[in-house]
Amino acid sequence: MKPSTKAFLPLCFFLLIGINHWSLAQQRAQIDQKVEKFLEEKKHQWRDLNVPFEDGKVLHDLIVSNGYTSALEVGTSTGHSTIWIAWALSKTGGKLVTIEIDERRQKQAIANLKEVGLSEYVDFRLGDAHQIVKELKGPIEFVFLDADKDWYSQYFKDLDGTIPKDGMFTAHNVLNNISGIREFMELIQANPKYETKIDRTSSSGISISKKK
């Protein structure tokens, strides 16, 4: 091999790396732009039991700041919180399992995630979460509940063993006077394995419990 050829090979190698990094950065930027545009346009249109825009951002930031790569959502609805969580996981290299009992809502959620280009980060499950959560294997680093409030305590009991150290269990609507919420909050705040606080960004409130 000629000396000039030997000198050229490392240059090609670094050039290919640079092109690959540029391509990934372009893909990242395209996803971010698409998601941001979609969320902003739909900001005041979400119905069907979806979380407020502000709470979706809280979930996104918790996942990104902690580097979580495995997540569970109980209560997909039509996918607002799902988009925020999946968007975060697209940045950490993770995957979301999301459970919804209503087929119509799930179909709309699937369409929404496809529209923003985040489908590959989501495993959609249709069925009764009461049963499905019992069949899930850990570790699950991040859990978000937004389903039947009177079952929050049982969801926590069923999922506690799948959450690793520094993992997080979050639940929506904890500032609302809904059946089951007080019992759940008393249960999780009394658990010595978790440090719990409440995010009050919206009037709904999100409990954030990090495993010690």
UniProtKB/TrEMBL annotation:
Keywords: Methyltransferase, S-adenosyl-L-methionine, Signal, Transferase. Pfam families: Methyltransf_3. Residues 1-25 form the signal peptide. GO terms for biological process: methylation. One of its GO terms (molecular function) is O-methyltransferase activity. This is Putative O-methyltransferase YrrM.
